Amino acid sequence: MPLPLDDQDGQRRCRDCGEWKPLEEFCASSKRPSGRGSYCKPCFNVRSKASYAKRMKEHYDREVKSAREVPAGHHFYADCEIVKPVAAFPRNRSDSTGYVTYCKPCHNRRTRETKRRLHGGSREYHLRRRYGVGQKEFDELLAEQGGVCAVCGTPDPEHLDHDHRTGWVRGILCFNCNGGLGQFRDSPERLARAITYLRGTTWQRVLIHPGVYQMCSPTRGRPPSQRS
């Protein structure tokens, strides 16, 4: 079967730009024996955009904005229509450009406004997203604890503690107690060994007479350091 006039040695001439290109550079088409269309991919994209703009104008009377020329390493800033370096934009893997439409300060501002509009603030958003409770439930749990840390009794704790295996909320702790449980990996065995260690290495104050105390050394350990 002879090749069409626009096919030679695995190449084809684009009907728009007239250039000879490999078949791989043409859009797929089930109507051609080779499985490739008559237009190379750049020309096909130009035709597709022009067709879309024509349909939008005829059916919706809307003008489609032409593509902006952006230098390499830069990105268009949608809020004030300024071209900025890509370093000024947060990354976004789901976008074809790899970056968010808004620069970092404006992106952060829009995120805060969205959290305030949908959740009433960043804290409510954080509590709902991470723990599944809101500020109302937080305040109720804190009231049940008497307004103090569930471990050490420090007033007005601010950290919601949860089981890292199940995600269930356990209580409200102060910064130090919440961090301490995390450092011990929520392990009762580690905490028990730590208590045993402290009891065996910490000097104890023992009452030997009313109002008189004596410092007793632990069963093991080094004596206190002496400063000259």
From TrEMBL:
GO molecular function, one term: endonuclease activity
Pfam families (UniProt xref): Endonuclease_7
Residues that span the membrane, as ranges: none
Domain of life: Bacteria
Coiled-coil region(s): none
Keywords, ordered alphabetically: Endonuclease, Hydrolase, Nuclease
Protein name as it appears in the record: Endonuclease VII domain-containing protein
Organism in which the protein naturally occurs: Micromonospora azadirachtae
